[in-house]
């Protein structure tokens, strides 16, 4: 804490945003004067914030009080001194500090998303392995729109015109929003976020930011903060940035592709490669585990009703857990690389997923394959869209049922977490079903 106090003083910080991520990935916590933050060395929050839905509702009382203390007590949130960042867009000098959640006995709280990722990383550490990840975040820029019943429209760029047509990898189309992206890059640099390449994706005003590879917990923190950063940069320029999985009809969805590999801690060498550079058995088992368990863990990568709108045939998103080398029609792509850099790109998670949980689930599936020595199917040559085996659940309801009945997820992530997560997502799904869509009014109102 002395190092943290020095860091705050050097930057003349006056306020601290104390943050935890809820299940959705929303930043919850408190804003406090720096003097109080240092005196209290953390904060207290109701444990119930970890069971909030995206609308701020909670699960039914009977389940609520079976998962939480009946007295609705506070949890202890302690700052992680390695997760301290300035807030570049704040008017006053402000820091944001990511906290970890503990109970009154000092035990990590199972419902915490960040703690879940830590649990998975501990499993790898016990085997002498160190996973490495590199997320890729897709998102849309749109006009500001106050009416949620109206469809989203492309924003006006520097030219004074809206983008039209497909502009995949267009430099000029991306340059239409240079002032916004300059702020984004500047603010990310100030925070030390390891963002790399910016590209224009296939959708209208759809972009992608790549992160440099590194430690999974650090990268999950950075994705968590990047979403805040990009939204603030967009609002400064009177634009909206959205990470919804499928925000616009007839446009591609937005993904969070996760590149993952595993190193041997003792040697620093990739366990995915044999001495001659060929694919190792651990690499193939890792893929086998992802194929076997991703269909059970899918709600952690596709957490919302809207998430499943990505999973339609011939819409740029994979609809399988097939694998193949340099094959983007597969859910699990193996990019061309050197043996030491051999990795798997999990193309199934949506941009709307909580990064802590999506990374934790993706790595856990691979870990289970490695320790259980699961063999993958044969790699796909050509179009994986035509393959019918290993199919995924294509509705949130089906996916939640499979997750709920997966004994391996409950064993490694805990009964409280799996039960609480599924319950929160079912409440959200019920809320969604209460809303009548424009499609129903358009086609059923006078026709049935």
Automatic annotation (TrEMBL):
Required cofactor names: Mg(2+)
InterPro entries: Gln_synt_N_sf, Gln_synth/guanido_kin_cat_dom, Gln_synth_cat_dom, Gln_synth_gly_rich_site
Pfam family membership, one: Gln-synt_C
Domain GS catalytic: 113-448
Top-rank taxon, per record: Bacteria
Keywords associated with the record: Ligase, Magnesium
Family from the record: Belongs to the glutamine synthetase family.
Protein name: Glutamine synthetase
Native species: Billgrantia zhangzhouensis
């Amino acid at each position: 804490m002395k190092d943290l106090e020095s860091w705050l003083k050097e930057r003349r910080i006056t306020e601290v945003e104390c943050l935890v991520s809820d299940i959705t990935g929303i930043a919850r916590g408190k804003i406090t004067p720096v003097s109080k933050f240092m005196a209290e060395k953390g904060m207290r929050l109701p444990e119930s914030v970890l069971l909030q839905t995206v609308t701020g509702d909670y699960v039914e009382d009977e389940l609520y009080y079976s998962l939480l203390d009946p007295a609705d007590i506070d949890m202890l949130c302690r700052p992680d001194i390695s997760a301290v960042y300035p807030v570049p867009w704040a008017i006053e000098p402000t820091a944001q500090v990511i906290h970890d959640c503990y109970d009154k006995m000092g035990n990590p709280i199972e419902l915490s998303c960040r703690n879940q990722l830590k649990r998975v990383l501990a499993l790898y550490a016990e085997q002498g392995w160190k996973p490495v990840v590199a997320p890729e975040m897709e998102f849309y820029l749109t006009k500001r729109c106050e009416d949620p019943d109206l469809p989203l429209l492309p924003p006006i760029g520097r030219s004074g015109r809206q983008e039209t047509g497909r502009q995949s990898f267009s430099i000029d189309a991306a340059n239409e929003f240079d002032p916004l992206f300059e702020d984004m890059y500047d603010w990310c640099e100030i925070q030390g976020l390891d963002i790399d390449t910016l590209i224009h994706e296939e959708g209208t005003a759809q972009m992608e930011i790549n992160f440099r590879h590194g430690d999974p917990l650090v990268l999950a923190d950075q994705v968590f903060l990047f979403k805040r950063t990009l939204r603030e940069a967009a609002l400064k320029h009177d634009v909206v940035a959205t990470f919804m999985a499928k925000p616009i009809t007839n446009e591609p969805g937005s993904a969070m592709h996760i590149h993952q590999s595993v190193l041997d801690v003792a040697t620093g060498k990739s366990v995915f490669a044999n001495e001659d550079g060929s694919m190792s058995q651990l690499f193939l088992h890792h893929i086998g585990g992802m194929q076997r368990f991703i269909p059970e863990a899918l709600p952690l990568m596709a957490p919302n009703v809207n998430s499943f709108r990505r999973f339609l045939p011939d819409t740029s998103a994979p609809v399988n857990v097939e694998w193949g080398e340099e094959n983007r029609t597969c859910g699990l792509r193996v990019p061309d690389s050197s043996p030491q850099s051999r990795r798997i790109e999990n193309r199934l998670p949506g941009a709307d997923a909580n990064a802590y949980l999506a990374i934790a689930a993706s790595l856990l599936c691979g870990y289970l394959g490695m320790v259980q020595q699961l063999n993958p199917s044969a790699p796909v040559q050509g179009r994986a869209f035509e393959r019918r085996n290993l199919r995924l659940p294509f509705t949130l309801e089906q996916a939640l049922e499979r997750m709920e009945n997966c004994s391996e997820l409950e064993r490694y992530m805990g009964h409280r977490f799996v039960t609480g997560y599924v319950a929160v997502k079912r409440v959200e799904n019920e809320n969604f079903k209460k809303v009548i869509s424009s499609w129903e009014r358009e086609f059923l109102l006078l026709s049935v």
